[in-house]
Amino acid sequence: GGSENVNYSTHALHCLLVKERVFDEVVWARLPPDHSHDAIDRLFSVLEGWLGLSTCPDLDTLWAQLAYLRTKLAKSEYACNKIELMAQLVNFAFDVFFNGHVNSEHVKK
Questions:
Q1: How many Cα atoms are found within 13 Å in the side-chain-facing hemisphere of 45?
Q2: Under a CB-based contact definition with an 8 Å cutoff, are residues 91 and 56 in contact?
Q3: Is residue 73 predicted with pLDDT exceeding 60?
């Protein structure tokens, strides 16, 4: 993963979630260095296009957007694929939150 996936703040957050018993464990999966993002980049472009079209209905809530995208996906070339739609509801400054609480010198970068 990129620096957003492999850094001391992400590691600290995962440890905190286990400590607080939100999860029993966290399993990190890593793709090989030569992997490609071609397929997912194409899908992101399609999703962005659907949400930006002038024919796109007025979607006032996140749940309406997800329902709309699920309907569009079911009728698309992606219908045969298992696709999980997720949304990041919060953008929190975890670097600041964990600063001073994690010895980043012991985390592989």
A1: 6
A2: no
A3: yes
CA distance 15 to 11: 6
- The mean pLDDT of 23-47, rounded to a whole number, is 81
The Cα–Cα gap between 8 and 15 comes to 10
Q: Is 101 left (phi over 0), alpha (psi -120 to 50) or beta?
A: alpha
d(CA 33, CA 40): 16
Residues 11-24: tens digit of each pLDDT: 888 888 888 998 88
In the chain, the amino acid numbered 47 is: L
Closest of 44, 46, 16, 10 to residue 28, by C-alpha: 10
